[in-house]
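Recap quiz, item 2
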Amino acid sequence: MFEVALIIFVGGMTYRLIRVLLLGWGRDRVPAMGSKTVGVLKSYLKGILIWPFIPWVKDTFKRNPLIYVAGGLFHLGLFAVIFLGTAHMLVWKSLLGFGWPTLPLPIVDWMAAVAIVAMLALFINRLVNPVLRMISGPAEWLNWGVVFLPLVTGYIMAHHLWFGYTTLFSLHMLAVDMLLIYIPLSRISHFMFYFFSRTIHGTEYGKRGVMP
Amino acid sequence: MLATQEALNQFVEDTGGWVASQLEACTRCGMCAEACHFYISSGNPAYSPVWKMELLRRAYEGRFTLSGRLKLALGIEKPISDSDLDTWRTIDYEACTLCNRCSQVCPMGIDLGSLIHGVRGALAAAGEVPKDLEDATQKQIEDGSPLGVDLDAWKDRMDWIQDEWEVKLPIDVKGADTMAVFTSIELMKFPSNFAYIAKIMEAAGESWTISSKGREVVNFGLFEGSTEHTILFLKRIFDAAEELGVKRVMVTECGHAYEALRWTSFNLVQVPKGLEVTHIAGVLGEFLNAGRIKLKAGAMDDNLITFHDACKIQRKGGHIKEPRQILNILAPNNFVEMTPNREDGICCGGGGGVISIKEADQKRFDAFELKIDQMNEIGAKRVTMACSNCRLQFTDSVQHFDLDWKIYGLSQMVAESLEE
């Protein structure tokens, strides 16, 4: 089942990537004022290093800090669990053939808890914020649920809170399979297109000699 | 109805992977709203940038994605209808200046301004352009000016400016280095700008000219989003430049025209070989640094003065340093920055053609209240800018709100403080 889900995930994402690439890309003939490369570098630096860790440099942070803090913590927690949790690293190792050092369990555990709390905050925010209420349809709620399930089942399993271990392991795996199959059909795939939009953003601003 | 759907689809298809990849990257987190002056000032969620590109998303997904087609088939998503076009016409033309501040805060770095411009393009293709914009575009097509100033009226006006300010405006001089292109806002509302720029050019010893053929730099095609009209108006300028054999086209104080000529034209039309496009703000910096003009240091240092960053000249144009260099010479002790500024500056609220749409007046004034707050915060009553459209929005709003501010154009300040 996991293998099937994995194949659907990889196949689906590849299909989406190729489809977007094949839609055609015009050549940019505009003479540049600044450096596109510098723009792209700055764009990634800001997106990966500055904003997630010092979001208050942004004017908009003051207007809606919750979305920055909860959004940032959720992603941080999620990445830590998926890539730096020992159990998950072992899954990666079996798939890729090599492993890497991981974080101690209590830290990963805390980060998972933070991610779960952040997701709950984001859920409430989506219910209350007028803009998010307007743009949220069934797909947005489903996205939230499909990501929340693996996180919460994993957490319960790691803590032996309720049910037997085998039951929870099956539930967790089922949730992960669902997530993998669903990603190519949804906006959760944004992690792949992030590299397009950030590059385009950096290129545009760099070309104009402006800080992206 | 079907034609409309086709128009929207066609747009997505034409723009290809660039647009698709951006739409695919959007997580619908809604952060862009917090950067938009129309949303902040009204609290209306429909003015959030993500909602402004909703039509484009629906058109794209309905045509290109599996889940989008599935949603349409299951009835979760409705096909785009005429009443949708009506709704988005109001949102995209009246409550967006295409200032692109939203792209600066988007965590994914999506270039929302360009996508919304795309929605305008689709609306224009479907014939859904606000009446005022459409009329102005028609006038620009027929008379060569959105305000209906034909060649004879323009020549009269040039004569009047030369008499009134006692300057020489070189018209249709073949072989000049620089061709200055003015906007109708300067022509009708700030005619002194012609005189100021003439003074600066003369002081710098620049060989320059104004073209009677390329006399109008405003591009209402760009406001509409119509590629066809954008190209038509761009060509008038480039044909004139080619005919006069100039080396560069200098956009005077107009933001959107600069965007069209400097950043859009090269991908749309055949720009004459070797022709450079520049903005007066850049040229002023160039003259200063080369020592071709000298300014009276501290000439405006008697009171606080601040600078308003125009979206198309600073955030999207790159001329961020030059105006500050000038202000630091003219008001070394009294030049204060508004916050936020530079590439994060808050838009005046009148750009993108919004100021020419009567129905948008209230939204435009509401958005301007953010500028009032920014000015009050630093206690400045004098402000300068390098865009006539911003300047018109400022002067109009100052009247509307009965403020005792003084509004300057950047060229005006430079011309008035030239060292003889």
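The longest helix of chain A spans residues 105-128.
Chain A has a mean pLDDT of 92.
End of item.
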